[in-house]
Automatic annotation (TrEMBL):
InterPro entries to which the protein is assigned, alphabetical: AhpC/TSA, Peroxiredoxin_AhpC-typ, Peroxiredoxin_BCP/PrxQ, Thioredoxin-like_sf, Thioredoxin_domain
Keywords, in A-Z order: Antioxidant, Disulfide bond, Oxidoreductase, Peroxidase, Redox-active center
Main enzyme class: oxidoreductase
Pfam families (UniProt xref): AhpC-TSA (PF00578)
Annotated protein name in UniProt: thioredoxin-dependent peroxiredoxin
Oligomer and partners: Monomer.
GO cellular component: cytoplasm
Species assigned in the record: freshwater metagenome
GO biological process assignments: cell redox homeostasis; cellular response to oxidative stress
Reaction(s) catalysed by this chain's protein: a hydroperoxide + [thioredoxin]-dithiol = an alcohol + [thioredoxin]-disulfide + H2O
EC number(s) reported in the record: 1.11.1.24
Stretches for region Disordered: 1-26
Residue intervals of the Thioredoxin domain: 6-159
Amino acid sequence: MSGPRLSAGDAAPDFSIDGTDGTPEGHRTYSLAEFRGHPVVLAFYPADNSPVCRVQLAAYSNSVRDLDIAGAQVLGLSPQSVESHDAFATTQGGYAFPLLADRDKAVGASYSILGPLGFYRRSVFVIDAQGIVRYAHRSVTSLMYQPTDIIATELRKLA
């Protein structure tokens, strides 16, 4: 279901999908291109409200200052709707970054993170200010996520 495996050194595929910053006023379309000039962390997660996803996104949100190296923007992506993301963020007390709705999994496919049955694999990509993937990690089981210190180390390499 995924295309060729995207890896470090490849151009990051652009996208334009709906998302939310957790407020009703924050619903809008987000694109990777709008963040050009700044590093971006794409955190793909399988599902709103799943136990590991709650822990992962809370860890990233609590450490967003550590990830704000050179103006980096964190974006969370999953295949649930914007409405689901709003409910998820509300029940968790909010997140310090937008959650994007990859409803048709096209972004997941372009980043080669879909598993054999088309499910999202928990994955993290660090993209530099020019739009080049500098770090790619895909979880095989989706039970583990990349800790913020590893992501911060990769971001520091771009500074």
